[in-house]
What does this fold into?
Amino acid sequence: QLQLQESGPGLVKPSETLSLTCTVSGDSISSSPYYWAWIRQPPGKGLEYIGSLSYSGSTFYNPSLTSRVTISVDTSKNQVSLKLRSVTAADTAVYYCARKGDGSGSQYLYWGQGTLVTVSS
Amino acid sequence: QSVLTQPPSVSAAPGQKVTISCSGSSSNIGNNYVSWYQQLPRTAPKLLIYDNNKRPSGIPDRFSGSKSGTSATLGITGLQTGDEADYYCGTWDSGLSAVVFGGGTKLTVL
It folds into this structure.
């Protein structure tokens, strides 16, 4: 059973870099021909796509965040990472990592439980 | 302002049927597959429908999806109180080269 677990600081200061890690268990990232994504949800609001990483190494980012975000994979640790630079209070959200299922479209079957990151001094 | 448009809320009685609409454009729904998610309070989203009308293993057939042109619809029959949740549609947007979501619809089972 594939499991995803997000981890990282729950509090980040404005202008600093938010760094989160998604640890994958139950499958090897390097052997999986799937897309991995980060999605966030501000308190009381809807889902927002941050970006995704394909098994071939291609990355796709939300145009509104592309100048500040980097998604990468560490196959040796079976982890997917997110870095969001120059954060502001608007970046306060629950951050989810997710993996695509077997379908053709952009859909996410597996999700982590999410981690709340608050941006505040 | 979300790229995909959903009604903020819908409601129906237990046992009844409800539909939730998702409207987009040719750059997203019109030319890409649609998925639907259910989010219960304080939990991660759960995939209900993918590729417009397919259900992942374990999702009951009370949930169905359809697409026509630049709009998609989620249908739920035999409503249960446990279906009270927020529902989101999502798809790829070829113009943005990004996944886009609707703003979410809160389902109340009266």
Chain A has a mean pLDDT of 94. The two ends of chain A are 39 Å apart (CA to CA). The first strand of chain A starts at residue 3 and ends at 7.
